[in-house]
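QA checklist item 7 of 12: single-chain prediction sanity check.
[x] sequence parsed
[x] length recorded as 308
[x] structure emitted
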Amino acid sequence: MGLDVHGLRLLLEAKRRGVAFDRTLTFGRIELAVIPSHAAALLEGEGLPGDEVAALASLPPSARFAEPVFRSLGAREILSLDASAYQSASVVHDMNQPIPEGMKSGFDLLFDGGSIEHVFNFPVAIRNCMELVKPGGSLLIHTAANNCMGHGFYQFSPELFYRVFSAANGYEVVRMILHGSGPLGSWYDVADPAVIRSRVELISFMPTQLLLHARRLSAGPILTTPPQQSDYVTEWDRKAAAQGSASPAHPSPLGGVLAEWRDAFPRVAGMVRAVRTGLHFYRTQSLWNRTFFKKDPGFRPRNPTGSA
């Protein structure tokens, strides 16, 4: 579990939004995966103290934990939760199991730098995360998306988090971001499939990851009803409304002509199909699809005076 430059950017953006860090819980003991001097410069660019973070450079990388970053962001108490004590986590708890009642609604912020994909019982683990945050608090998750097979048990789609972090569960999605792996990976805001009434699919050539900022709106039962994929719900509703009113379909004469042409010139037809498939991919299932993915023009840390 680590805090890389993308996770740090997400934390800084949350700070800009006025997110409280007073009582922070990290899912896993978070290692700092950014050069300490770079992390300190980003913090100082926001008018935040960076001395303690810069001092981590004197430690070996395996001992550079991210608590100083959270202190710079305003955390007064920082706890970490893990399934074992091997990294000296504050709380030892297996997230495959429900959290104790006494921990619920106990934190202003929960940060997961890459643990949720390693927990087999995902519904219990995500409910735990949601229940740990107090109303008005925030949950930040950095996890695997495309081309991360074998990294953990799972890699996730944006649709899953949009459906889980819903008003029915007392949450809202503040921002959903997809980025390419590596420090230079661009950010893309991901559309909600329920809003655009389409599956948001992606075939990428490189590993990609998701950044999620969700806010808890109210206390109450979470995931008492399992989420359903939005396009199926839309289709069920549409068919229920149209049942009994459908008119018979009439075949198009053009379809027969095209079928005859395809049979007469199979090689040309194959080439046309390949071109059409490629164009369809670039139009719908790639990062060029601006309906699905809107590129972030870039993150600019504020200067110490607070101006952008």
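[x] summary fact logged: Residues 266-284 form the longest helix (19 residues).
[ ] second reviewer sign-off
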